[in-house]
Amino acid sequence: FNFAQSLKANLEANLLTEDKDWNIKGFIDVHKNIYPISLDTKLLSKILELTTIPIVTSFAKKYRLKVYLAQHQLQYPDITLEGAEIKNKKYAADIKTTYRVGGKLKGGFTLGSFRGSLRSPLSTRYSRFPYSQYAKHWILGIIYTRKKEIEQKRIYSLDDLPNINSVITDLEIILQEKYRIANYVPGSGNTANIGSVANIEMLRNGTGPFAKYGDKVFQDYWVNYLRREDAERQGIRRPYRNLNEYFAWKKKPKG
């Protein structure tokens, strides 16, 4: 049982049409009217998340895995899986999305906070189960390209379904362990979130800068990472800004 390979194939079969278009066409009401979806990226991300969760749940049922969903929006991870097929260990699966502009990625995935559960590994304040109980932390990433806006003023019927254009296409599923695609700098802006690499081949192959060092180095790096404003607030120098500086910092005597 190859967990990543099996789950990825299942997601591709249930999220994509044969042309790699999104198989979601709109919202339907009790009168069987279909309302088109806009190109708003926040809306698209939420719908992708909501449609992915039951697909993963169905996959888990097939392999007799227990499923625990996040109990609120800010809790990590989106999905927890546990069962004999994964050696009775807990796997975290977090759903992330990004999109292409002009054939290139707009940016990488945001991989969650480097505070919270990562720095409180024995607590359930920020996570469904203590962070330390998870054997693996998977990123279920979805990359897409936005198509032309379809007619927003029109209400479609079920008979129109075959002719309704998908608003996104060329969907690609990235299923990698978090450390394998994480970057050594935060995500966009001044957020306290870990950013992923934005190179599509690195995302596909899981060959980010932490890949050769492993999950322990990844976690230690981000547990001790300070942004410039964090260091200024504490009145100290930033210990490091990249992996080379991190390894040099690790060699320095502490205290």
From TrEMBL:
The protein, known as: Restriction endonuclease
Keywords: Endonuclease, Hydrolase, Nuclease
Signal sequence segment: none
InterPro entries: DNA_rep_MutH/T2_RE_sf (IPR037057), Restrct_endonuc-II-like (IPR011335), Restrct_endonuc_II_EcoRV (IPR015314)
Taxonomic superkingdom: Bacteria
Molecular function terms, GO-annotated: DNA binding; endonuclease activity; hydrolase activity
Matching Pfam families: Endonuc-EcoRV
